[in-house]
Write a sequence for this structure.
């Protein structure tokens, strides 16, 4: 779209949006149709020049104004979509939308009176805006966005709305302790666990597991709350054969963060039968991301827990982890497999014997010799020290 087309689209929007306020009296069908067409036109823009032209012409403020009550659902939906494109990889435009009151306006679209399409679009925009942006994360919480998003996780809400709401919550809770606590306080953990039930949408389940993963990162209260809500058992259920790679990855990752530094959760996962399916996910032919998270979850569950270490060994998990040290596996997989082996062989003679029997020493030496990551080298060295009977292990950090 050229500058002339951008200007034309903006003129259509400004025709119904005075500087002083959004006039509800002007949202008659004809006016709403014009605004909708202009928003649709702007929603197709992806290039940086058009983004800058729209912002320079006051487009961010005009689009935010179209999110106000009184416009049709179609106008709301397309205006939100235009904002999403306006802010794509453009920090300056993101800031402009926030300054224009865009956060409160988008949160307002999550209210029960909006259509499912509007809910999905508003949640999707918030998800993108909050990615690695603490100011947006805090603004959404302060505007009541977390409560509104949790409400969209309720039974009876469409799978599309639930998926987008969970996606927004995932970004809101990434390394933001206040937001993580807010989700728990408004009943979000129980709602998320409810979305993990058998027979649900794979997209919803994967998104919900992703939120739980972030909620339980370095947060003892959320780890306990997830367990008390049945989250450990529900996540283990997602590891069953036949599930998508994304669901398996997210469930294993969530279990990893639930079990690190939480003995009760580690024991609960073992009692729920979680070790055998995690070992199954290490099998050759699986996705590297699944291998990485399954190995990390096994590392977390066996931390200072001989019962879990023995269960992993009995399920042939030691041999499976050694196979992940193969040169063809990426460094991220080497890191988690070597870390799990270092933990397993720390102060556990039977696991050390099992590791030696399946060639762990040679595999670990190969990792040290190859151009893998520094973390993989460190963890492989720790495992080798344990195989030499030195009583040294390493601690896993949640992620």
């Amino acid at each position: 779209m050229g500058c002339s087309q951008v200007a034309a689209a903006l003129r259509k929007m400004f025709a119904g949006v005075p500087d002083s306020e959004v006039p509800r009296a002007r949202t008659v069908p004809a006016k709403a149709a014009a605004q909708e067409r202009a928003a649709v036109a702007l929603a197709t823009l992806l290039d940086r020049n058009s983004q800058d032209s729209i912002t320079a012409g006051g487009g961010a403020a005009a689009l935010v104004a179209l999110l106000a009550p009184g416009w049709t659902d179609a106008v709301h939906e397309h205006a939100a979509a235009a904002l999403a494109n306006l802010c794509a990889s453009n920090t300056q435009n993101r800031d402009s939308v926030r300054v224009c009151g865009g956060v409160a306006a988008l949160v307002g679209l999550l209210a029960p009176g909006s259509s499912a399409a509007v809910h999905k679009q508003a949640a999707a925009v918030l998800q993108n805006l909050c990615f690695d942006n603490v100011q947006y994360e805090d603004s959404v919480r302060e505007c009541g966005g977390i409560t509104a998003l949790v409400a969209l996780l309720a039974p009876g809400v469409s799978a599309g709305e639930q998926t987008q709401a969970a996606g927004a919550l995932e970004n809101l809770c990434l390394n933001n302790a206040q937001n993580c606590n807010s989700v728990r306080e408004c009943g979000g953990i129980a709602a998320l666990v409810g979305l993990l039930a058998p027979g649900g949408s794979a997209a919803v389940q994967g998104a919900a597991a992703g939120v739980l993963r972030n909620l339980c990162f370095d947060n003892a209260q959320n780890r306990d709350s997830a367990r008390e809500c049945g989250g450990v058992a529900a996540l283990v259920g997602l590891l069953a054969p036949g599930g998508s790679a994304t669901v398996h990855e997210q469930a294993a990752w969530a279990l990893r963060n639930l079990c690190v530094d939480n003995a009760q959760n580690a024991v609960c996962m073992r009692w729920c039968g979680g070790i055998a399916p995690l070992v199954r996910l290490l099998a050759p032919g699986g996705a590297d991301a699944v291998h990485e998270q399954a190995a990390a979850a096994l590392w977390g569950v066996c931390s200072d827990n001989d019962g879990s270490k023995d269960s992993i060994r009995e399920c042939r998990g030691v041999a499976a982890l050694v196979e992940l040290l193969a040169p063809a596996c990426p460094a991220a997989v080497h890191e988690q497999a070597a870390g799990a082996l270092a933990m397993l062989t720390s102060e556990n003679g039977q696991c050390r014997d099992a590791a030696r029997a399946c060639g762990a020493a040679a595999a670990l030496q190969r990792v040290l010799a190859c151009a893998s990551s520094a973390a993989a080298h460190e963890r492989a060295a720790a495992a080798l020290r344990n195989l030499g009977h030195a009583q040294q292990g390493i601690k896993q950090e949640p992620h």
Notes: The chain is about 70% helix and 0% strand. The longest helix spans residues 29-43. The radius of gyration is 25 Å.
